[in-house]
């Protein structure tokens, strides 16, 4: 038992000894990233890309929106919340909603920690009729892991 305890403590100590330089390098890299001087143009570009990818993901996930290549974000499509600097309200076609991020989406790419996308009431019936028609034509029920899951005909 004493030998096992000594071996385990040796392995643990060796692990801590080798983990130091990597940990130091990690924190140095984080520090370097935080010190980088960003231009306003680069920040806007990163913010637009983050919001665009979040919107594509949300529309595909919640509304089975397949025309994700049509989604383009401009300054007129989104605005920052007055109360929370990491919350952005978005508007695209008949959809409206918000994304709330844990980190600054203008500096870091991340998916939203909270999101809500709604269809405007005046476009709701039209959108759902179109979606149901498409599902009936293709016999598609939903998208799972990027692939259509087909309905088997009932016998």
Question: What does it look like?
Answer:
The chain is an alpha+beta fold and 155 residues long. It folds into two domains: 1-36; 40-140, no CATH class. It has helices at residues 2-35, 40-63, 121-138, and strands at 78-80, 87-92, 95-100, 114-119, 140-144, 147-150. The strands form two sheets. Strands 1-2-3-4 form a four-stranded antiparallel sheet. Strands 5-6 form a two-stranded antiparallel sheet. A hairpin with a 6-residue loop joins β1 and β2. The model has no long low-confidence stretch (mean pLDDT 80).
Spatial ordering of strands, largest sheet:
1-2-3-4
Number of strands: 6
Principal-axes geometry comes out as extended
Number of domains: 2
What class do helices, strands and sheet pairing give?
Answer: alpha+beta
Largest sheet: 4 strands, antiparallel
SS summary, helix count: 3
Low-confidence spans: pLDDT under 50, at least 5 residues? none
Average pLDDT works out at 80
Distance between the termini: 66 Å
**Rg, please?**
24 Å
Helix proportion of residues, in percent?
A: 40-55%
Order of helices and strands: HHEEEEHEE
Strand content: 15-25%
């Amino acid at each position: 038992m004493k030998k096992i305890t000594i071996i385990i403590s040796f392995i643990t100590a060796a692990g801590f000894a080798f983990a130091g330089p990597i940990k130091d390098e990690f924190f140095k890299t984080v520090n370097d990233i935080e010190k980088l001087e960003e231009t306003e143009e680069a920040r806007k570009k990163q913010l637009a890309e983050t919001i665009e990818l979040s919107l594509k993901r949300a529309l595909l996930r919640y509304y089975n929106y397949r025309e994700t290549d049509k989604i383009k974000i401009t300054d007129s499509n989104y605005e920052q919340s007055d109360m929370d600097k990491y919350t952005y309200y978005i508007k695209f076609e008949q959809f409206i909603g918000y994304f709330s991020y844990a980190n600054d989406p203008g500096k870091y790419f991340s998916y939203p920690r909270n999101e809500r996308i709604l269809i405007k009431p005046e476009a709701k019936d039209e959108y759902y009729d179109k979606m149901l028609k498409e599902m009936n034509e293709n016999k598609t029920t939903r998208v799972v892991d990027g692939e259509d899951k087909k309905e088997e005909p009932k016998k």
